[in-house]
Amino acid sequence: MMLDAFARCRLHEDFEPVTEMGANPYYRPVEERLVTGEVLVDGRVLVSAGSNDYLGLSADPRLKDAACRAVRRLGTGTSGSRLVNGSLALHETLESRLAAFLGQQAAMVTPSGFLANMALGALAGPRDTVLADQLIHASLIDAVRVSRARLRRYRHNDMEQLDRLLDGCDPAAAALVLTEGMFSTTGTLCDLPGTAALARRYGVRLVLDGAHDIGLLGAAGRGAAEHFGLESAVDLHTLAFSKCFGTTGGAVAGPADVIVYLRHHARSMVYSAALSPASTAAALAALDIIETEPERRRRALAAADRLRADLTGLGYDTGGSPTTIIPVHVGDIVPCCLLWRELFAEGVFATAMVPPSVPEGRALIRVSATALHTDAQLDRIATAFAVAGRRLGLIS
């Protein structure tokens, strides 16, 4: 008798008591998303404090109108991959605009940000090495697994360790350095100056995942590379439309020959139905707004600075993030989920991050500030953290 493959289908042992206490924070259905930055959950209006919608575009009437017009003209889906019969002129318009926006030769639109990152699996092979920051997203880890390349991870922003790892790479094989512009759980920025300098010294390609920072950082919103003045140092960008662009989908942008290669060899591109007309049109409308309304990113970052100061003042460890993501470090899973429950009771819908999304013992509440948050809503979030934290004995 062989082992039952379903026998391993169990959640983390801490989730049983968490669920019994009514503190399971996952798969809570939202009934309505309001243009005010609030959500309707279980019949209650709560302040949305965990969304990636940093610029507040997902409910913007201009994106909604663009999506509706595309549906009326092109239907609800493409029913085919881009390779065969799913390509739209609308896709190519978006790709051309994105490439120009990011200062790259070409771009390739994918059905999701996850699949944009998975496309990177076509760039490496079994003899190659991918050197990646310890905090990279799961989609990037999966891309390396698909490639069968050797994955070597360095401590977060540890340039000395990255230097040693690069020095130990096989010169007869290829190597890539893979990092994120803005990390999704901690809100920290990559050490792009240090990473780019090492990539240049060793003659390896630098790939930057800009899912969270493209649209938010830099004078023109072109992300962490623009923020650091190092756009020419990045060989390939990936991005997601589910953050600053307020819709769904993703893209890869870089040299034209690399993009053509990925169009034919990246399995996530070749074997996935194309991005829907509605999401494509919404992303185009979002790009227009990103290029013409810089005040949105300024407001989002200012709101984060205010809220971070309030939470730090209460005694919470927020990790010093300089971006719209504010990690409130708790430690273990159970108290983290209990804090989420108390925040929910106080009218704040935040995000609990537990292993494997974060390292063991580093569970946290992820708070995100957006351009839509009013000062009153920021005060409401801070007050909820004060009440919930004192109730649980996490702060004095």
Automatic annotation (TrEMBL):
Cofactor(s) demanded: pyridoxal 5'-phosphate
Assigned keywords, A-Z: Aminotransferase, Transferase
Domain Aminotransferase class I/classII large: 50-384
Positions in coiled-coil regions: none
EC assignment: 2.3.1.47
GO molecular function: transaminase activity
Keyword Transferase: yes
Catalytic activity line of the entry: 6-carboxyhexanoyl-[ACP] + L-alanine + H(+) = (8S)-8-amino-7-oxononanoate + holo-[ACP] + CO2
Domain of life: Bacteria
Pfam families to which the protein is assigned, alphabetical: Aminotran_1_2
First-tier enzyme category under EC: transferase
Protein name: 8-amino-7-oxononanoate synthase
Annotated source species: Nonomuraea salmonea
